[in-house]
Design brief:
- The complex is a heterotrimer.
- By secondary structure, chain A is an all-alpha fold.
- Chain A has 15 helices and two strands.
- Chain A has one domain.
- Chain A starts with 21 loop residues before the first helix and ends in a 14-residue tail after the last helix.
- The longest helix of chain B has 23 residues.
- Chain B has a domain of 210 residues.
- Chain B is an all-alpha fold.
- In chain B, strands 1-2 form a two-stranded antiparallel sheet.
- Chain B is globular and about 65 Å long.
- Chain C is built from eleven helices and ten strands.
- In chain C, helix 4 runs parallel beside helix 7 and helix 6 crosses helix 7.
- Chain C starts with 7 loop residues before the first helix and ends with a helix.
- The chains are: A mainly alpha, B mainly alpha, C alpha/beta.
- At the A-B interface, helix 5, helix 6, helix 12 and helix 14 of A face helix 5, helix 10 and helix 12 of B.
- Chain B: This is Branched-chain amino acid ABC transporter permease.
Chain lengths: 389, 308, 261
């Protein structure tokens, strides 16, 4: 295992605990340049929208780094929060698309089409708040976080953790999926909420809207990275690591362990919810297939491939796995599951710290040595290539 | 929801639905038994357990077609052979997996979860490539079809009774194996204290491999039973994994009795609720109840208070 | 250093004012019928060093577990400065002023020595407090001061994982010191230490007891004689004998337990 928090930079004196180390600033700059400059400049509208979709998963992976990598809480139900965020957004958009005018052929105009198909004649109470955009924007985060709070508070107060927590979150993801699929009249069922058109009158289906949403998404992601970095750098971040190591010691240092775990879990849920809402906006629909166990575990592997302890690694891992998935399933659809399965096994067995681990253990020391060697005769440029923390 | 039924109707409904749930109960018990051995005794989370079950189902399907086409005379008894073959196939695959994968991860339980999930994806794809994406069904011999009329309002399906009998047999067999045999003693010794077991000359690697194989083999038998209630497809196993894990946790891991009691209560609740509600709502309510109880009582139904 | 350094009036306690720092009364805990601690009572005065000895399985560690809230009592009471501890959560007990060192060094391997000490600094213990915690001069000075005391001032930036066994034990003691508890509980502080480390630890303990009570579990009799004011002997979950080391050593019941079989 490599050291997650303070890497082996002995030169750092006790006195400074900077918000980001130089290498982290470089990683951030690299990410910003790639996401906000290189990709938009080189990809066509369709591909850019696809990358935008991938980046919504990166929110989930980012949350998992804090929750799983740092706090050691493996959640197999992140799809719940991604989905809830996405559904909240989709409900608003659907109501806007179901104006009386648009739905006058229905037997009850003014309600979403799938409700009309299921003989529902008035808007259910839990849809009503989503008629307001400001309220929707609040609920997009509030609903998933509240849900996460209820689950995690009940469990962590009773000291349930590790594998049990993973199993329970997985069950909750399954329950939510079955519920959404089963309650077709209220949720749109297996098809989800589709045919979304405008956000407060702004058509989200055009190329230019996709383009703008891509940048909004990228900006939000970088904002979330900075929040995560703040948490990681604070004493709370170190307490999370300490708790993962020796929960009892933290408790007997006077901390209420449950509160910190609940915080980590809720933060991860909030990130996932933002991702879900951005997914709905960019892709134009939301369905139960993004809520269940399979997508939830897929998102864990994104974080694992990138490096469960690395914020930046999680983003690169998400992009890499999804890029591989798209190109693989385009050319060899049958082989994709084999490849994904093998990737799970390979990462767990051989590279438990993912890409970031490979960077830190193999590339970084080598580069540092090279730089030092170069520096002796003349100052060298610090290389900025691979993903790193 | 009970309003429109008389008391007599209701009791008949409970009994009938109870027996209709027999096969589901048996599948649950067998699946959970295998998982309880692996998770409860070894602490390994085997997310591919559903795929081991489905392997058993496919083996049963192959037997069924083989006997139908080549040995029609023996068709009535093919199911016995199918169960044995299912056990051996899943058990052998389980031992192979333990050797190649699991034994490297005993110290990282959460990572076994990810690795076995990867394994389950690969197995699903393998089934899809070999047997096709379409679900396949099994032809039952005629003596297993039909039902026994108990009273004029209650009848019990024969295949349900048969599977039930097999389940009881296997459960008793496992109990005897774990609590009475030398092998069981070694398994319990290794689980209680690995280094000490090694020190007294138990080959703990071998014990691990056989334990894992045993758990997977029982899942294979569950797959055989499963063919009677559903058709088999590459992803059928995944649908059962959540329920099975909940059963094991709900019963209190490592408790054989708890596993059976929890499988019984969960399958009976579900099949009884199914009569009154839609299938999906019955499942949601059952799982919600289990998760709710687990949140209040995380140690499950049966546990010992141990000194830490 | 030894007990003689302290005024003997403290050792005898003062019957008129039962101002015990810690009063353990009829404490019992059973695990599935097995009574690991059975009707144990003892009283610790302010500034007293009390050592609990006893053969393996006597229930010594369980008593510490009960005091710090790790295990819940089946019956009996634990009063700390008049406050009942059996109902409090672990973190509340710590905040009340009880510190606990575990038998095996319990430190955070992945963090540096500095960070280990920082986490134990008694400020910013809520979620929000931890988020906004500032590593200011007060924190740094205190950590440096403690590091000096526990002989680790040159290792501050080292990851705790790479410390020697003895250093890890000291680090954990340091983590307790920085909490500044009034009652310090140490579970086998010198177990597994070299002779040199043992001497240093005794020195360390004698330095840090000023202004607090210490409850120690220890097997090393030489070490016990060096530090103990009073000794409580546990056997099979019960108090077998109590008093000065001299008295306990000559108690026939104690001799029977230690040498009899």
């Amino acid at each position: 295992m490599t050291n997650p928090i303070q890497s082996l930079t002995k030169s750092v004196t006790v006195n400074d605990n900077p918000f980001m180390k130089p290498i982290e600033w470089l990683s951030l700059a690299l990410l910003v340049v790639v996401i906000l400059v290189v990709l938009p400049a080189t990809l066509d509208a369709f591909r850019l929208n696809l990358v935008g979709k991938y980046l919504t998963y990166a929110f989930v992976a980012l949350g998992l780094v804090i929750c799983w990598g740092y706090a050691g809480i493996l959640s197999l139900g992140q799809g719940c929060f991604f989905g809830l965020g996405g559904y909240c957004m989709a409900m608003y958009l659907k109501l806007e698309a179901s104006s009386i005018e648009n739905t006058k052929i229905q037997s009850t105009p003014g309600i979403p089409d799938f409700m009309d198909w299921n003989q529902i004649t008035s808007l259910p109470w839990f849809w009503k708040p989503f008629q307001s955009l400001p309220l929707t924007l609040i609920l997009v985060i509030a609903v998933p976080v509240l849900f996460a709070f209820v689950i995690s508070f009940a469990m962590f107060k009773r000291r349930v953790g590790g594998t049990y927590f993973a199993i329970i979150t997985q069950a909750i993801a399954a329950i939510l999926t079955i519920l959404i699929v089963g309650q077709q009249g209220y949720t749109g069922g297996i098809n989800g909420i589709t045919d979304l058109r405008t956000l407060h009158g702004w058509d989200i289906r055009t190329d230019s809207a996709h383009n703008i949403l891509y940048f909004v998404n990228g900006g939000l992601l970088i904002g979330c990275i900075l929040i995560a970095q703040f948490v990681k750098k604070s004493k709370l971040g170190r307490i999370l690591v300490a708790m993962r190591d020796k929960e009892d010691r933290v408790r007997f240092s006077g901390y209420s362990v449950a509160g910190f775990k609940v915080f980590a879990f809720c933060l991860a849920a909030a990130f996932a919810a933002i991702g879900g809402a951005m997914f709905t906006l960019q892709v134009g629909f939301m369905s139960p297939s993004f809520v269940g166990i399979v997508p939830s575990i897929d998102m864990v592997i994104y974080a694992a491939v990138g490096g469960r302890m690395s914020l930046f690694g999680a983003i690169w891992g998400t992009l890499l796995v999804n890029w591989a998935k798209t190109s693989f399933s385009e050319s060899f659809p049958d082989l994709w599951l084999f490849g994904l399965g093998a990737l799970f096994i390979l990462v767990v067995l051989a590279f438990p710290n993912g890409l970031a681990g490979i960077w830190r253990e193999h590339l970084e020391p080598r580069l540092t040595r090279r730089v030092k060697a170069l520096r002796a005769p003349a100052p060298a440029i610090i290389p900025q290539s691979a993903p790193a923390e | 929801m009970f309003g429109e039924y008389s008391l007599g109707d209701l009791s008949s409904i409970f009994v009938m639905q109870g027996f209709a749930g027999l096969i589901l109960f048996s599948v649950y018990v067998l699946m959970a038994l295998g998982l309880a051995i692996i998770f409860g005794q070894m602490g390994v989370i085997n997310m591919a357990h559903g795929e081991f079950m489905i392997l058993g189902a496919y083996v049963t399907y192959l037997c069924s077609t083989f006997f139908q086409n080549h040995l029609p005379a023996l068709f009535p008894i093919y199911f016995f052979l199918a169960m044995i073959l299912a056990f051996m196939a899943s058990g052998a695959l389980g031992m192979l997996v333990e050797w190649a994968l699991i034994r490297h991860l005993y110290k990282r339980p959460l990572d076994t979860l990810l690795a076995t999930w990867g394994l389950s994806l690969m197995l699903q794809q393998a089934y899809r490539s070999i047997f096709g994406a379409r679900e396949v069904g099994v032809e039952l011999p005629s003596w297993l079809i039909g039902s026994v009329q108990v009273t004029d309002s209650i009848e019990i399906p024969i295949n349900g009774l048969f599977v039930m009998a097999v389940t009881v047999l296997i459960t008793v067999g496992v109990a005897v194996l774990i609590f009475r045999s030398r092998f069981g003693q070694q398994v319990r010794a290794v689980m209680a204290n690995r280094p000490m077991a090694g020190a007294v000359g138990i080959d703990s690697e071998k014990v691990d491999r056989y334990t894992f194989g045993l758990g997977c083999g029982i899942a294979g038998v569950a797959g055989s039973a499963f063919t009677m209630i559903g058709s088999t497809g590459p992803t059928s196993g995944q649908l059962y994994i959540v329920d099975t894990f909940l059963i094991v946790v709900f019963g209190g891991a490592a408790s054989l009795l708890g596993t059976i009691a929890s499988a019984f209560s969960i399958s009976q609740t579900q099949s009884t609720l199914e009569f009154f509600l839609s299938g999906s709502m019955a499942k949601v309510l059952t799982l919600l109840a289990v998760v709710g109880i687990l949140m209040l009582r995380p140690q499950g139904l049966f546990t010992l208070k141990v000194r830490r | 250093m030894n007990a003689a350094l302290l005024p003997s009036s403290i050792i005898g306690a003062n019957p008129d004012a039962p101002e015990y720092l810690l009063a353990v009364d009829a404490l019992t805990v059973s695990f599935d019928g097995f009574k690991a601690v059975n009707d144990v009572s003892f009283y610790v005065d302010p500034n007293e060093i009390r050592v609990i000895i006893g053969p393996n399985g006597a229930g010594k560690t369980t008593v510490l577990d009960l005091i710090c809230g790790r295990t819940r009592a089946s019956a009996g009471s634990i009063k700390y400065k008049g406050q009942e501890l059996t109902k409090l959560t672990e973190s509340a007990i710590v905040q009340a002023g009880v510190g606990r060192k575990f038998q095996t060094p319990s430190i955070y391997d992945d963090l540096t020595v500095f960070e280990n000490l920082e986490i134990s600094f008694p400020r910013g213990r809520s979620v929000f407090g931890a988020l906004t915690f500032k590593r200011d001069a007060q924190v740094r000075d205190r950590i440096h001061e403690i590091a000096e005391t526990i002989f680790l001032k040159d290792q501050l930036l080292e990851r705790a994982e790479f410390l020697s066994h003895g250093q890890k034990q000291w680090l954990e003691i340091g983590m307790l010191l920085i909490q500044d508890p009034e009652l310090l509980m140490l579970d086998e502080p010198v177990a597994g230490m070299s002779v040199g480390e043992r001497i240093k630890t005794a020195e360390l303990l004698n330095q840090i007891i000023v202004g607090r009570s210490v409850l120690v579990i220890e097997h090393d009799m030489k070490f016990v004689e060096d530090i103990a004011h009073r000794v409580t002997v546990l056997h099979q979950g019960k108090v077998l004998s109590e008093g000065s080391m001299e008295r306990v050593k000559n108690d026939p019941k104690v001799i029977e337990v230690y040498l009899g079989h």
